Amino acid sequence: MWSTRLVAFCALLVLSVLPGKAAELIMIEQAGCHWCAAWDRDVGIVYDKTKEGKRAPLRRLDLKDKLPEDLASIRIERFTPTFILVEENREVGRIRGYPGEDFFWGLLGQMLDKLPAQASPQS
Question: What domain range includes position 82?
Fold first, then answer.
């Protein structure tokens, strides 16, 4: 009896300190999309190395594929690329199209500002 309670207590303790599902930047793309290719060339090659990419890792989805179950609440448009910032499987914001590198980073920064503050990673 005590061991069952101890196991339950330990499980609750572990779950209480685990972080929630991190933010992700979902990129809806499709083959032959000129603007998707431009984003790949301008931003995609460095995205995962940036502070934005570390805060919201990129997850690519093809427009023609079935939406994953964890994103069922997200509305998908027929426009590519569409970038959707999600946290806890809920939409925080979106960028429709690729407005160019400078505008993209600015718009992404505005969306990331809507996320709760994150503890700074320790070096």
Answer: 20-112
